[in-house]
Design a protein that fits this description.
273 residues; 21% helix; 44% strand
């Protein structure tokens, strides 16, 4: 049995105010723990995502776990991880590179903002169904499917006031459900729901915007967006699209730092099954 100490930071991402935006736990590891251990830490934290990172030469390996399982891409937890590293460990760096399931991701510090260079998800238009309407409470104008399901609603107020039936959301295609509409104050207004991952609502979803922004870029014929996530905590994302890449910029606020000392029985390499 091994005694192991973890530094864990709780960071609110896509906001400059504590208790707003999307909280993520960031765990700095010297070596990879077993998948079961990582999953149990994420369950214990019970946040929409817990990020785990290990330094490897000139880059960082990065993985994200929800309470319901590992996920291939997460914007707010990447921003939170970059915030911690820039603030405490890589103070002279201008950018950081992360090796992830979704490939190499670059985060660049730009004054008070952290800009994520992420892949855009490809989506295909699918038929609007009565099941979507029953799950959301509003009949979508359009539906698109990639990793997630994206439903375009008639008005931003219907996004803001939506009260989904989460059991019915679970039965829909896609990993997450993102509902979105054109905004008045902001270019887009979106909410994201992930009951399949034991997260009813993701307060601010970066990977969801990797679905949403390409759709709105085509509809509105523009490349830059001020996007608003209309959850109770709320958040603002500055987005731009260049080819098949989405740039998401936001601020972050540190909530708390915790040092955990625990006994672990399993360690793993990121390169092993």
């Amino acid at each position: 049995m091994n005694q192991y100490t973890i530094q864990q930071f709780i960071v609110d991402a896509f906001t400059d105010t504590v208790f707003k935006g999307n909280p993520a736990a960031v765990c700095l590891l010297d070596k990879w723990l077993s998948d079961d251990t990582l999953q149990n830490i994420a369950k214990e934290n019970n946040l929409s995502e817990t990020a785990f990172t290990v330094k490897n030469d000139n880059h960082y390996e990065l993985r994200w776990f929800t309470p319901g399982g590992e996920i291939d891409l997460c914007g707010h937890a990447t921003l939170a991880t970059a915030f911690v590293l820039f603030s405490f460990f890589e103070k002279n760096a201008e950018s950081l590179t992360f090796a992830t399931q979704s490939g190499e991701l670059l985060v660049t510090k730009k004054d008070e903002y952290y800009e994520l260079n992420f892949p855009a998800y490809s989506t295909q238009q699918v038929a609007v169904t009565s099941e979507m309407e029953e799950a959301i409470g509003v009949r979508p104008l359009e539906a698109w499917l990639g990793r997630d399901l994206v439903c375009v609603l008639p008005h931003e107020n219907e996004v803001i006031n939506a009260n989904p039936d989460f059991d019915k959301v679970k039965a829909l295609d896609g990993l997450l459900l993102n509902i979105t509409a054109k905004g008045s104050k902001y270019d887009t207004v979106t909410r994201s729901f992930a009951p399949k991952l034991s997260v009813k609502e993701d307060p601010v979803c970066g990977s969801g915007h990797c679905h949403v922004i390409p759709l709105w870029a085509n509809k509105l014929a523009q490349a830059e967006f001020r996007a608003y996530q209309a959850s109770e905590r709320s958040g603002i994302l500055l987005c731009r699209i260049e080819g098949d890449r989405i740039y998401l910029a936001g601020k972050a606020a540190l909530f708390i730092v915790v040092v955990k000392s625990m006994s672990w029985t399993k360690f793993r390499s990121m390169t092993t099954a």
